[in-house]
Amino acid sequence: MTPSNKPIYFVSYAHEDRDWRTLLFERSIGTTVGDCLVWSDDQLRGGDHWRDEIRQQLGRCSVAVLLVSPHFLASSFIAQDELPEILARAALPAGDARRLRVVAIPVGDGQQALAASTDPQHRRLAELQYALATHPGLPARPRDCQPATLEAVRQLVQHELQAAVDPLGADLQQRLARRFTGLQWLGEGSRAQVYQARDTQLNRTVAIKALRDLRQREAFRGDVLAALRTSGEPSFVMVYDAEFGASSSWCVVQHVQGQSLRSLLRAWAQPGASQPDADQLRQLFIKLARALERAHCLGLRYGNLKPSNIMVDAQFEPFILPAGRQPQPGQVAQDLPELLARVALAQQAGAPADDAAAEDLAYLVPEQAVGLEQADDGELADQYMLGLLAWEMATGALPQRLTNPRRLAEDGLDAFAPLPPVRSRRRLFPERFDTLLQTMAQADPAARLQPDPARRGSAMAAVLAEPDLHDDLSLVLVRDSWRRCTRAADFDSRFFSEFYARLVQRKRAAAKLLARIQGPDRWQRQHRMLKQAVSLLIAFSQRQADRDEPTLLSHVAASHAGMPAGLYAPFGELLVDMVCGHADADPAQSIAACDPVCQHRDTARRLRGHWQRVLAPGIDYLTRAELLRDAEMTASLRAREGVDLYLDLGARAPGGPVNRP
């Protein structure tokens, strides 16, 4: 149960017993899922349509608390308007989201009156799971109740309410009460629920994972023992303690102060929420890939890499939780019908599948779903799930590849639809990274990056070898942008001619330089030089740490000796305008974007910033190189003439006389 679905407790009671209602219940009740609202008809105000309001609140509630007294059993309103709904929903199957949990508390002679009643509704009430025999009787009047008895009843009621909303947490709370206090629900996965607690012995906050289905105890035990081997490794949580009993299985692990990746993805999907940039996602991906590479080198396969099994702290550091590791061959295919039944049941009720079921279906490994996996295919399964996880982080959408599960038996791996490129949903995303994710998430395991049988961890090492994962994001996006521009069929004929024409419009000094270029062959050479100069400017940004002469731009600077230093900045500005587009009040001055992704205004704005950042170091280098040559020439002239000289870059031609004031 998620915090967003915290239950409402509906208290049904006769008005003669309102004092008991006040004594036993505050406006909210603390449970492992947080404080939950208690509603009863004493919250009605004058003018409310009280009968409709009561029915509405009863329809919303998840737990009904009944103060069963003779007055309760004799109330015609309770018998006609409340009990039918309560009993009908209480009788629904355990898996039905509408099922109502009932806690009945005897008051006065209520237990005896219920036992003696022949009313069919009263007989059904007596047979409920949380019937009267689970509670000591309360006297008819609160003033006749001893304080110790009242406190004992409150604690019993608290426990029953806790068991009603979270039976696993209630049991865990009782078992671990000597050492761990303050149990609070954190989340759930396909196999276990996670709680936060305080370790009173070591005075630290921990997380406790409790197994829901004890039939999976041996698999859970294998998960935890495997987790001990990565405990303390980067991006894996520490394992502190565990128990694998016949009636309860749990493990105590490092508590990560943060949120599950699933919670973050849910928050990012909200309207108006700020999204992480591609660089943050790359860094998260790299850390997870390195963690898996290390696990593979140790001979371990994780096998259940999903957002709910990853915690992310305030510094955006990921931590992989020790649960749901590599399934046995055939296990996924064997468990699949139950998963599909859960999803179908939710659809029939007109509701989405619960988060755990939806995530399990989205992250099914194709070869496991159709029963084709081999015992040593774990590296390929981890690669597939990491690819899906990165795709979901980048797009904000749960992967929907198995749209028709009934086709699995007939179509096998082909039942899994191709994964759409990230760039179909997020235009400004590194192309090679996108291609890498497409390869990792291939339905056919033979089409993924293949591990070297002689070297553990080699497949994940191949993933991490992609250069665009490690280069500066702006540099990666600009390289992609320039490749898209140069791939255009008319690039050489349109781009360069327009570029030079625009440059002359903006800077008169350029016209004198370009006038020297005569004939088609010279212009073709100039086009090649310009294309090479842009590539070198981009490469220069990549190698900013290497500034020893000669640099990548030394040849460009030498070949353009005499070019006014003031032309380099306009050159860079025009290049960005040509790639990203430029809107001007004068249509003649507007420039259509060469990069097709810049047809979208916001994408063009963001890509423009990346281009400016990448070009800036090279433009600055070339400008300073020319200024240095000008300064040397000026110093030489000063020495000869002994007068102050001023450089007018916009007026003189290269090699022409220096203008004096």
UniProtKB/TrEMBL annotation:
Swiss-Prot/TrEMBL keywords: ATP-binding, Kinase, Nucleotide-binding, Transferase
Domain Protein kinase, by residue range, is: 180-464
| Entry keyword Nucleotidyltransferase | no
User: Which SUPFAM superfamilies does the record associate with it?
Assistant: Protein kinase-like (PK-like) (SSF56112), Toll/Interleukin receptor TIR domain (SSF52200)
Q: Respond yes or no to whether keyword Nucleotide-binding is given for this record.
A: yes
Classification via InterPro entries: Globin/Proto, Kinase-like_dom_sf, Prot_kinase_dom, TIR_dom, Toll_tir_struct_dom_sf
Taxonomically, the superkingdom here is Bacteria
Q: What positions does the domain TIR occupy?
A: 5-132
List, in alphabetical order, the Gene Ontology terms for molecular function in this entry: ATP binding; heme binding; oxygen binding; protein serine/threonine kinase activity
Q: Give me any GO biological process, just one.
A: signal transduction
**What is the protein name stated in its UniProt record?**
Uncharacterized protein
- Organism, as annotated: Pseudaquabacterium pictum
Q: What is the lineage of its organism?
A: Bacteria, Pseudomonadati, Pseudomonadota, Betaproteobacteria, Burkholderiales
